[in-house]
Amino acid sequence: MKLCRFKASENVSLGVIEGDSVFEIKDDPLAAGFSGEVKKGTEHKLEKVKLLAPVLPSKIVAIGLNYKAHAVEFGKPLPEEPMIFIKPSTAVIGPEDEIVYPGHMSHRVDYEGELGVVIGKTAKEVQVKNAAEYILGYTCVNDVTARDLQGKDIQYTRAKGFDTFAPIGPSIETGLDPLDATIQTYLNGQLKQNTSTKDMIFNVFQLVSFVSHVMTLLPGDIITTGTPSGIGKMRSGDVVEVRIEGIGGLRNRVVDGMAARKLWLD
Fold first, then answer.
1. Pair 126, 220 in one domain
2. Do residue 79 and residue 162 come from a single domain?
3. Global model pTM greater than 0.90
4. 72 and 197 inside one domain
5. pLDDT above 70 for 192
6. Strands, DSSP E only, in 143-187?
7. CB burial class (10 A; 0-12, 13-18, 19+) of residue 235?
8. Residues 123 and 88 in one domain
């Protein structure tokens, strides 16, 4: 089942995507007691609606260096435990929304295609064997990164936290096998990343358990599970698309932001 949020005639609705249609649903999949089944209402053609970010998370907990080949790409040893950082909720945008290049602070902005885990119910100190019970489904995420600032700052808050740096979508797939899904990233139609989630160092269920032992995860929160090898820079005008087998494609265009001057000192 592909769950989504969409806008039609200025109204925002929850929906389920089937083929080239989306059906309104009244049941909130993030509400307590959600049964996993939905009652379909009004039908809309997908081409006539605007898909939005499928959830509005209170936080995005991101994982660094979680693919073996990506660790090699950066010349770093495999981590002994997951490395986590936070992307703010204000970074979230949806499919076809614009990624704003923060030229006033950064001169190297990269794409990072990732599998996103959408939490379905409050999770605290969850065991690995029970982690699946707390997952609503999976979505595509682009963990946009100001690579020059990541190296300059050491910690990742600024490099990962700009507005528009967390594209999410196009939907939440509830039936995905997260242990063996193909993740691809295209830049202007050229394949740049192409890996199976089998290459993860820590799998989805281990990550949910680990993070829930650090902080309470709320319904709608997202864990981004790390990016494969093949990351690279984007420029204004570029179009980046993250595609994950069984979910679909998340497409966004890069546009210029503020000019290269220290506006924050004005």
1. yes
2. yes
3. yes
4. yes
5. yes
6. 145-146, 166-173, 182-187
7. exposed
8. yes
